[in-house]
Amino acid sequence: MTTIAESARIHSMSVIEPGAVIGENVSIGPFCHVGPKVVLGDNVELVSHVVVTGRTTLGNNNKIFPSAVIGADPQSVHHHGEETTLTIGSGNTIREGVTINTGTAAGGGVTVVGNDNLLLAYSHVAHDCKLGNNIIMSNNVLLAGHVTIEDRVILGGGSAVHQFSRIGRQAFVGGLAGVAYDVIPYGMLNGNPGVLSGLNIVGMTRAGIPRETIHRVRRAYKEIFEGDDTVRNAAANIREKYLDCPEVMEILDFIAADAERALSSPNRAAKS
């Protein structure tokens, strides 16, 4: 049975299928289609011509612009109609033509988008992706399946991310970059194929990280990537020196974690 809050405003030319749950103060403009297993939280706005389908849950205060398709089946040859889900947090802005797919059974069955993200026009979030908070995906950014994007990452226009890749917190990916390998937290990646071109100093400064801490992170970066040892060995060897610096430890933990992809590094596509 459909549950629609009395305060919801729904245009007469939109379709809300039986079973949908519509929260308080939801605004649904003309020519939208909301599927039977969709939950829209309070204050969600569908501007017009928006499709929300599948087993999809949107938190409060999300705004979705025309021609977006949210919760469609995964675009995967391994999907055979299993019921999977998409969960979107609160405060996101999802611009024109954005597509976000549900998960696949083989990949855990869940695609997750966190809070306060900005997904610009025609960007794509594929099946089983996990997005954190305060992420900016510029126009035409493409995420393949099983990608993990941590908090406060910025992805430049037209960049594309290979399946199973990880992008660490507050990294910056330049426009048209090809992300074939994992990008460390605070890293800056440019080019196609993408190579690590230093640290996102501007982002770190804007986040309020003290200058002396930024200098320590830069020293650690050089020790990790500019020596003769492998990245993983170099990272392990400097761990004791930086135990009192959470930002460096975040990078070291990212490098040490189990992963499907190699690590992006300077002057070459990947180094382990």
Describe this protein's structure.
By secondary structure, the chain is of the alpha/beta class. The chain folds into 2 domains: 3-146, UDP N-Acetylglucosamine Acyltransferase, domain 1 (3 Solenoid); 170-272, Up-down Bundle (Udp N-acetylglucosamine O-acyltransferase, Domain 2), CATH 1.20.1180. The chain is 15% helix and 29% strand. The protein has helices at residues 201-206, 211-225, 231-238, 246-256; strands spanning 3-4, 9-10, 15-16, 21-22, 27-28, 33-34, 39-40, 45-46, 51-52, 55-58, 63-64, 69-72, 85-88, 93-94, 99-101, 110-113, 118-119, 124-125, 130-131, 136-137, 142-143, 148-149, 154-155, 160-161, 166-167, 172-173, 178-179, 187-190, 195-199, 263-265, 268-271. Strands 2-5-8-11-14-17-20-23-26-28-29 form an 11-stranded mixed β-sheet, with no helix packed on it. A 9-stranded parallel β-sheet has the order 1-4-7-10-13-16-19-22-25, with no helix packed on it. The protein has a 9-stranded parallel β-sheet with strand order 3-6-9-12-15-18-21-24-27, with no helix packed on it. Strand 28 and strand 29 form a beta hairpin. The longest helix has 15 residues, at 211-225. The chain is elongated and about 65 Å long. The N and C termini lie far apart (54 Å).
